[in-house]
Design a protein that fits this description.
This protein has 4 helices and 7 strands; from the N terminus they run H-H-H-E-E-H-E-E-E-E-E. By secondary structure, it is α+β, with helices and mostly antiparallel strands. It has 2 domains: about 35 residues; about 140 residues, Nuclear Transport Factor 2, Chain: A, CATH 3.10.450.50.
Length: about 180
């Protein structure tokens, strides 16, 4: 009888821990069905890349966190807003600016949470880079992978970390 009572109490304790854990994580799991954050991140990412392809360096830089870090497997690293914005300024006077296009079905996003609150997102995928002529895409020249850390700062999604890697040249395919 004594062992039965100990096992019964232990079972109640484990069951109560399980119920308490569910009470804490259930809202977080339930929140996964709410895609508002994902829509916001996708929109911010789309605008960032639109500005990369067509905007000025000022519009592109507006998406960056002050402590942004950029890591490139071929070009090294750039640390801080000033360093990356200086490089971005070089795109302002480029006649036939390269174009970046995400490879369909590779874009993925994962939330970062503090409790139930989403404070950031990791975005991953592959993208192609094209040469342009008179503003129109001409030739695919490169494919690479990317991972970005976006953080929600004062209600605005900012690019905080950029990882650009696995750059592979492609046989200049005309588009």
């Amino acid at each position: 009888m004594h062992n039965f009572l100990k096992n019964f109490i232990a079972s109640l304790f484990i069951a109560s821990l399980f119920i308490a854990t569910l009470a804490v994580i259930a809202p977080v799991i339930a929140q996964d069905t709410n895609t508002d954050w994902e829509v916001q991140v996708k929109k911010a990412d789309d605008i960032y890349w639109h500005d990369f392809n067509f905007g000025t360096s000022a519009s592109l830089n507006a998406h960056l966190a002050q402590d942004v870090e950029f890591y490139h497997d071929l070009g090294g690293s750039l640390l801080g807003y000033d360093a990356l914005s200086k490089v971005n300024a070089g795109m302002d006077n480029t006649k036939d600016r390269g174009r970046r296009v995400v490879v369909p079905d590779t874009w993925r996003v994962f939330p970062l949470r503090r409790g139930a609150d989403i404070y950031g997102a990791i975005i991953m995928g592959d993208h192609d880079f094209f040469s342009t002529e008179s503003g129109k895409i001409k030739t695919r020249i490169l494919r690479s992978s990317f991972t970005h850390l976006m953080l929600l700062k004062d209600g605005v999604w900012k690019v905080a970390r950029i990882y650009s890697y696995n750059h592979q040249p492609v046989a200049g395919e005309e588009r």
